[in-house]
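dude i think i finally got it to work??
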Amino acid sequence: FLSDGGSICEYGRRLVQRQEEEIGYYERAKRFVEQLAKANRPESEISTALDKYNGHLRSMGIKPVTMPEKGEKK
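look at this
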């Protein structure tokens, strides 16, 4: 980025923006899976959602979303 003429400040802004987008994706994924669990959806449906989201999270280098514990209150 810098060797292509970008500034350090611009790089920092882009880095922060990317991190915010990644955090947002993680939070949306976690919320969706929690909603499925709260709605008592079949475990296979929750697992499919986890696989989809976690594949994308892995590609971004972010920790995976896990299956909510039974009785976990959110």
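The helical segments are 8-38, 43-60.
im so relieved honestly
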